[in-house]
Amino acid sequence: MKYYIIIPAHNEGQFLTDALQSVAIQTLPPKRVVVVNDNSSDNTEQIIDSFTAKHSYISKINAKSSTVHLPGSKVVNAFNKGLEQLDEDYDFIVKLDADIILPDFYFEKVAKIFSDDAKIGIAGGFAYEQDKNGDWKLNHPMDKDHVRGAFKAYSKRCFKAIGGLKTAMGWDTVDELLAQYNGFSIYTDSDLHVIHLRPLGNAYNKKAKLLQGKAMFTMRYGFLITLIASIKMALKQKKPRAFLDNLQGYLLARKEKTDFIVSLAEGKFIRQLRWRKIKAKLFQ
């Protein structure tokens, strides 16, 4: 199977060499890799150039964007810049972060997943991060049927059906919901261990939680599902403030009449899907 990889990279000099090296040694090589140098001020561009000099299938594009970290929009804007460089001759497409290391058989296995079942629309493995003792441990904050945004592979049919990636906070949740709306399934493979070199931040970020609440509004969760999701999030993270901040973000978005990122029909499906999962967990 033929596949393309797009890697948004903003000041990733510390990790990019290892990430690109893990792509370069894949047993099933990519047809094209586009690395988007997103307004970097470190040695990111030099690292990309060193790989483009050695590998004809790797190319670089420089993009100008804000230096401010904008969850969702910044990375998806960079991804879309890379997408503009690619044609339609692929079987699946990958959004990859610049701070991960893949096992060398990763995409050979992903290709088999897609080729074995045409209903699978999104596939991937699980992230492992280093703890304080230096041990690599599974860190997968979402449900086990979720593929982390750092290494998402989409079948071409699914990617087209969902209309690509949404330029908004929550893009890596709504893509899976819309995939299911369009009749595709999500596949996670526990044998695919992805090394995440930059662990998720432990510091509490109120702004991020407000944006998560806003994302739940724009995905048409409705208040009750947002309430339950906020409680679950706060309990899982052991941060009571997350509950209030998440709800505040939702209510602010509702007050400001923020634009939805899904249609009425998609929103109805998303709520029904969420309720089914909630009930399944309650009665398991």
UniProtKB/TrEMBL annotation:
GO molecular function: glycosyltransferase activity
Keyword Transferase included in the entry's annotation: yes
Database matches in InterPro entries: Glyco_trans_2-like (IPR001173), Nucleotide-diphossugar_trans (IPR029044)
All copies of domain Glycosyltransferase 2-like, residue ranges: 5-145
CDD domains recorded: CESA_like
Record-linked Pfam families: Glycos_transf_2 (PF00535)
Domain of life: Bacteria
Keywords from the named record: Glycosyltransferase, Transferase
Family to which the UniProt record says this protein belongs: Belongs to the glycosyltransferase 2 family.
Protein known as: Glycosyl transferase family 2
